[in-house]
From TrEMBL:
Superkingdom per UniProt: Eukaryota
Stated name of the protein: Leucine-rich repeat-containing protein 57
The entry's keywords: Leucine-rich repeat, Repeat
Any one GO cellular component localisation term in the record: cytoplasm
Organism: Acropora cervicornis
Length: 227
């Protein structure tokens, strides 16, 4: 492994960018930690990595971290020390739970994607992030949303293919939310509240594959205003 990634490490020392996609890695390469504060972009997608070392907190200049398609079940709390992080992509892993208090330190985070994991709860602290534009939590097992979801500053929220049976009215209070995707959940028609249709900033509500059809939704009070 060391020889195969050596050229990438040498290049990363100069550019601050390191991509080790599809290298068959079964663990986080410890050699990466030598890059320290010089690393700005790290992509370890399509490997077999099961855990991230706590020392990842030393990547204080890291702006983009992509770990798609690995075998991760959780994340180290020390990741929160990468306070300059703007993009965090963790799609197609086995994450069931995130450390409490992980997100509040990500004050620069703009994009968060945790699609195709095993999350059962919505990360409440996302509402504290002022720069967060897009959150993708599709293909998980989330069954409800907290009232605090109304604090989100996101422009797009993707909750497709979860287990939602209701949507809190507070969603209508998201001041920047333009795109809400809740396809293929367990939502009845009454889950699409009048407030969501009439009072929110949402311009695209994608909700196919729930317990109602598009005709029923079109006949709902406020639908024409939402569109």
């Amino acid at each position: 492994m060391g020889n195969s990634i050596a050229p990438h490490l040498e290049s990363a020392q100069k550019t601050g960018v390191c991509s080790l996609c599809g290298k068959g890695l079964s663990e986080f390469p410890p050699q990466l930690l030598q890059l320290g504060t010089s690393l700005r972009t790290l992509d370890l997608s399509n490997n077999k990595i099961k855990s991230i070392p706590s020392a990842v907190g030393g990547f204080s200049s890291l702006k983009s971290l992509t770990l798609t398609s690995n075998h991760l079940a959780t994340l180290p709390m020390e990741l929160s020390q990468t306070k300059r992080l703007e993009t965090l992509v963790l799609d197609h892993n086995k994450i069931k739970m995130l450390p409490a208090g992980l997100f509040p330190n990500f004050t620069q985070l703009k994009t968060l994607s945790l699609a195709s994991n095993q999350l059962t709860t919505f990360p409440e602290s996302l509402g504290t992030l002022r720069h967060l534009d897009a959150v993708n939590l599709s293909d998980n097992k989330i069954h409800s949303l907290p009232e605090s979801v109304g604090d989100l500053q996101v422009v797009e929220l993707n909750l497709n293919r979860n287990q939602l049976a209701s949507l809190p009215v507070s969603l209508s209070k998201c001041t920047r939310l333009k795109v809400l995707r809740v396809e293929e959940n367990c939502l009845p028609l009454e889950a699409i509240s009048v407030e969501l249709l009439k009072e929110s900033q949402i311009s695209l509500l994608s909700c196919e594959g729930n317990l109602f059809d598009s005709k029923q939704l079109r006949e709902t009070d406020g639908y024409d205003q939402e569109q």
